[in-house]
Amino acid sequence: MSNEVASNAVVAFKINHDGTLSDGSVTATGGKGGNGFDLTTNSSAMPDALQSQGAVSVAGRHLVVVNPGSNTVTLFEIDAGDATKLVMVGKPTYTLGDFPVTVAVSERLRQACVANTGVKAGIACFQITNRGLVALERQLERVFDLQQSTPPSLFTTDISQTFFNEDSTALITTVRSDGNHTGTISVYPVLANGRVSTHDVRTSPPRTAFLFGAAVIPGTRDPRTGSSAYVISDPLFGAGVFRISATTGAVDTVALTTIPNQNGTCWAAYSARTRSVFLTDALGNTLVEMDPATGAILQDLHTTTGYLGSIDLVAPANGFVYALSFSTDHLTPAVAVYDVTAGRATARQVQDFRPSASSLSPNAQGMAVY
């Protein structure tokens, strides 16, 4: 999404047959973007204005995007014949809190759950209907006491990402600390009536601090414990492999992996083609590939395109990885395209896609694929 403060928009790019990108469309969300406040520079944060993963999410033919500056969320239907054509369903909907930064969407439940990380922080869930998003609660019931401001101050306690597990039986949220405490993983089970519970289990895994973006590892559910595997980034050291139970909320640490010379490893995406997880660094010109079973680093690719770093990324089934990146000159946005069709540890950059000047700015955030 463009995340422009005056008017937010979804920027859709075409994926060509060879995996490369080309310009597509820009569709207004009817809401406003926003920036967190960077205490280190005493100014608005950019790039990585929201410091979150999942500002844009896609499930089936539905796309949901947050509008941080107007405390709303927008639902779109994706055209079946041309995915760059988006039709707004209903109107932007109030998120019941302040400064929404991440949204989880479940096709099975036909629900979207939005996490707010401002003064009024917490998660609100909505039913997806043909008239738009309908709130399932009258007020914010999944509250997180972050002691935050609106807009939120960075490098303090914030919600990083909220997401459904593989079979939509739990809503999982990562919360990063102020650096003086451990990070937190919250697990809300989905009840028999299809609603997300308002009571969660919160765990602070030892030796973590800034738990951030998560990659769901499919096909790893243990029927005895209800736990599945996840890779979750933490810029304190790199990333960890965790098993999280949807039934009990228990979190077990499998491995904590230190990524050499990393500075801001925050985003994670699973690739079905390579059966591995890719991670990006906001302050490093790298793409790291990790084994989701052991946490071993399979490849640490250093690119030569002059990026300051990369943030949100996706790894769809076509065997490519797409990462939202910013150049060192004026923070010009780009999408780095990597080919991983040859399998594990074979990533190579094949495109440095620079969108049309009017579509993206350094405020851009979020990435999803259809």
Describe this structure in words.
The chain is mostly beta strands and 370 residues long. Helix content is 0%, strand content 47%. It contains no helices and 30 strands. The strands form 8 sheets. Strands 5, 6, 7, 8 and 9 form a 5-stranded antiparallel sheet that branches.
How would you summarize the topology of this molecule?
Elements: E1 9-15, E2 21-28, E3 37-38, E4 43-44, E5 56-59, E6 62-67, E7 72-78, E8 86-88, E9 93-94, E10 100-106, E11 111-116, E12 122-129, E13 132-135, E14 142-143, E15 158-164, E16 170-176, E17 184-189, E18 201-203, E19 214-216, E20 227-234, E21 238-245, E22 251-258, E23 265-271, E24 276-281, E25 284-290, E26 297-302, E27 307-314, E28 320-327, E29 333-339, E30 348-353
Antiparallel strand pairs: 1-2, 3-4, 5-6, 6-7, 7-8, 7-9, 10-11, 11-12, 12-13, 12-14, 15-16, 16-17, 17-18, 19-20, 20-21, 21-22, 23-24, 24-25, 25-26, 27-28, 28-29, 29-30
Helical content (DSSP H or I, runs of 4+): under 10%
| Structural class assignment | mainly beta
Number of helices: 0
Portion of residues in beta strands equals over 45%
Largest sheet report: 5 strands, antiparallel
Please give the alpha-carbon distance between the first and last residues.
14 Å
Mean pLDDT: 96
Shape estimate: globular
Oligomer: single chain
Spans of at least 5 consecutive residues with low confidence: none
Order of helices and strands: EEEEEEEEEEEEEEEEEEEEEEEEEEEEEE
Radius of gyration: 19 Å
Strand elements, count: 30
